[in-house]
Specification:
Elements lengths: L4 E3 L6 E4 L6 E7 L6 E8 L5 H16 L4 H15 L3 H10 L5 H14 L13 H18 L11 H16 L5 E2 L2 E2 L9 H4 L15 H14 L10 H13 L3 H5 L10 E4 L8 E4 L2 H9 L21 H9 L5 H14 L4 H7 L16 H16 L21
Antiparallel strand pairs: 1-2, 2-3, 3-4, 5-6, 7-8
């Protein structure tokens, strides 16, 4: 029976270790200061040539002579490589797990990263270069521009998507910018997304400022009213018409209106819980909103009830109303229109901002309580304007109307 270890003829301490699955080169020698022999595996005999095995063996023997165990050293090196080699996919998962983000924001991060950086998911962060970022930023824009079929809006096609993707990537990178392991930095060259700022290629996004003028508002209201007529046979469903109307007279965001629940609606007010700034927003019930609520009272948790206990999909609601009105507008244009109507009737920027539940980061803003009663004059003006009713000029200057305490 042959020996398990076959000594090399030139390097003392180098052996071929025989095994069922194949022979391996190993170094077997004592570590300085420790009498017990240490065995260090170099690799398979059929992969590492004898010349290379002897060179590696001398290196390991020299380390043992210094009183260092090469196995411990290699283990630390592997741990370092593993941490420093954290991939974009791993970094994304850790980044999201450490933050209290809304479900919609979590979904957005995952979708945008998967869509824009699919081929980078298994790539270590430290291997994503500034040149890579610059090329991908331009590639996202060009790719969307080639596929786009809609007319160009306020910004060049693909610009908003490219900037959003890079904003997400930069946030992930920044969370590792100061991380080190075993004295080595995860990002030795810093956040590579900074190249966009350094080279000044990231232009300022122009905000969309489109809203509906008086004529367009009247047209939309007529189309919405027509959709409720018993003989109407067009594309607009009654619930879709009510949804668009609610957006127009309240300035709510698309998702806020779609996800209204009956448990958050009482006799005087209704509460928007799934807001952009995560702060509940209470609005008073105006006369036409009360009628809208009453005609949508079904056996469901949702104001706009869909199938199987889910909220109704409103993906085509705004588009169908816009098509029949022969106008081009978005849900956010309706929000800007509500704000514009309020401004046209003398309400201040601060009052309108509070109605829209904007968060400007002002410290004082946290001390001012926003109540439903304070919003009633603004919402009634917007409602009367859309309905074509006379509006008293004194509305903006009058104090908030007295309402039941449940509004506060």
């Amino acid at each position: 029976m042959r020996s398990m270890f076959v000594a090399d003829t030139q390097v003392k301490g180098l052996f071929q270790k025989k095994g069922v699955t194949g022979d391996k080169w190993v170094v077997k020698a004592k570590q300085r200061g420790i009498n017990k022999p240490v065995t260090v595996t170099l690799g398979r005999v059929d992969v590492i040539q004898v010349r290379d095995a002897r060179r590696l063996a001398r290196e390991k023997l020299a380390i043992l002579a210094q009183g260092i165990n090469p196995n411990t050293q290699d283990k630390k090196a592997r741990a370092t490589d593993q941490y420093l080699g954290i991939t974009l996919e791993q970094a994304l998962s850790e980044y999201l797990s450490l933050r209290q983000l809304k479900p919609s924001t979590l979904t957005s991060y995952r979708q945008v990263v998967a869509r824009s950086f699919a081929d980078w998911l298994n790539k270590p962060l430290r291997e994503i270069s500034r040149r890579d970022v610059l090329s991908r930023y331009q590639g996202i824009q060009n790719g969307i521009a080639k596929r786009a079929i809609q007319p160009e809006k306020a910004n060049a096609r693909g610009l908003a998507e490219a900037q959003k993707a890079m904003r997400y990537l930069s946030a992930i990178m920044n969370s590792y910018a100061n991380d080190t392991y075993q004295g080595k930095s995860v990002l030795p060259d810093g956040n590579p997304v900074r190249v966009l700022k350094d080279k000044r290629v990231r232009s300022q996004l122009k905000p969309r400022r489109t809203f509906l003028d008086t004529s367009a508002r009247s047209t939309i209201f007529d189309v919405i009213a027509l959709a409720h007529h018993p003989s109407y046979r067009g594309k607009i469903k009654p619930q879709h018409a009510d949804f668009v109307y609610l957006l127009l007279i309240t300035g709510m965001r698309f998702k806020e209106a779609r996800l209204l629940r009956w448990q958050n609606i009482d006799s005087w007010s209704y509460t928007i819980t799934d807001t952009k700034n995560s702060v509940d927003h209470v609005l008073p019930i105006t006369p036409s909103v009360k009628q809208l609520f009453e005609r949508n009272r079904f056996d469901s948790d949702w104001l706009f009830a869909g199938l199987e206990g889910k909220p109704l999909s409103m993906s085509s609601a705004v588009a169908n109303v816009a098509e029949e009105a022969k106008l081009n507008f978005t849900a956010h244009d309706l929000r800007r229109t509500a704000a514009t109507i309020a401004s046209e009737h003398g309400f201040t920027r601060d009052q309108i901002g509070r109605l829209l539940n904007h968060s400007d980061g002002n410290v004082t803003d946290g001390y001012i309580q926003k109540t439903a009663s304070a919003f009633l004059p603004i919402l009634e003006v917007i409602e009367r304007h859309i309905l074509g009713q006379d509006i008293e000029d004194a509305y903006p200057e009058d104090p908030p109307m007295e309402l039941p305490s449940s509004f506060d």
